[in-house]
Amino acid sequence: MSEPADEREELSWEAFGAASRELAQQVAADGYEPDIILSIARGGLFVAGALGYALDVKNLHVANVEFYTGVDERLPVPIMLPPVPSVVDLSGARVLIADDVADTGATLKLVRDFCAGHVADVRCAVVYEKPHSSVRCEYVWRRTDRWINFPWSTLPPVVRRRGQVLDA
């Protein structure tokens, strides 16, 4: 199901810069000092990098999760792809999960549940949160119910690749 372009939220690179800085300011104002920023690839990589610089956190980890396959097209459930982060690396840490959007919340829930019981504290920071998300994030720049055009994923790939996910 495709929506007209004017029914979409447009995020420019410049607005993303402001958004990530505001997110970092929310985290700092809350007094939360993460030991690790765990990004949800791919969109969360941009958010995690920006938060890492703004919060002076160099310990960034990546969780590769596949859920969306297109606009409003997704797998039945999100799956974590290899390499899966080591819970030993997360043990006892204050973890900030970073992603671009909390849409259904299923991806964030998967990663948050993965961390549960292994970390001292886990919180989520997203650029956008949708009203129907099953996860309420602690740090949110904007709330919207529209489809979002992110500057890193609006244009089609330069090349199309097949079979790029590696088997463990």
TrEMBL record:
InterPro entries: PRTase-like, PRTase_dom. SUPFAM superfamilies: PRTase-like (SSF53271). GO terms for molecular function: glycosyltransferase activity. Keywords: Glycosyltransferase, Transferase. Residues 12-154 form the Phosphoribosyltransferase domain. The keyword Lipid metabolism does not apply. This is Phosphoribosyltransferase domain-containing protein. It comes from Pseudonocardia thermophila.
